[in-house]
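thread: overnight batch results

M.L. [08:02]
morning all. the overnight job finished for the chain we discussed friday. pasting input first so we're all looking at the same thing
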Amino acid sequence: MTAAGGATPSESKAGLHVVGTSVARETDSVLDRVAAAVGRRPPRVLQVGARSSAAERNVRNWRGLIARRFGSNAVFVGTDLAAGANVDRTMDICGSKRSCAAALGEAPFDLVICCHVLEHTRDPWRAARNIQALLRPGGLAYVSAAWSHAFSASPDDCWRFSVRGLIRLFGELEVATWFYSGGDVGLDVAYRVVRDGEPELDARAGAVEQGLFQVVLDHDDNRAMLARQATDRLPVSRTYLPTLFVDMVGRRSR
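M.L. [08:03]
and the structure it wrote out:
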């Protein structure tokens, strides 16, 4: 698998560079890539897991972003398992190719957005295959999935994904970029790990990631932190991770 894109490093550790960015900036970059790919043609955009809810007030309104960037001629289709606000088609992204075609038609998409969905699916391998198949050559997939997150059963919570896990899952795509993003309301921070200005895809980046995001507490600090919680917590571990999502932008090359 190859990587594309560039970055200006701001911090160095173990030969790698950590680049501070934001999800808003990275989202704009995704739309720039779409604009460059489609030219004057209005894009076709699919959002998997599009149903809006009050609990997701920090989730971006992709329909609005696409309309503002590309105008009313852009095609935007929001899908979800259940009907609701922002949903145009009800379908299961883990279903068969035939069921996906029945819901969406045969026309491919220039951008497929799948944010905060894969960790809840029953079959992320099939979901990834379907997303890749829905892209036209040169089309982009923007995938964001939980790496560290509290249990969230909506409707179920099945998986967690590392960067390398997503890269393997979407093996047919060329990685354009990837980054980590925070998940708290009002906190728009993101970080990329690069080498020589390119996204670092090697597992050796894990040593940097562990140092950046992991907090190890001794026994007394562990118990003190648990005692400060509003409800009871069990002292099962002395190691904590923040709410963290892995974000990957991949391009279908053929």
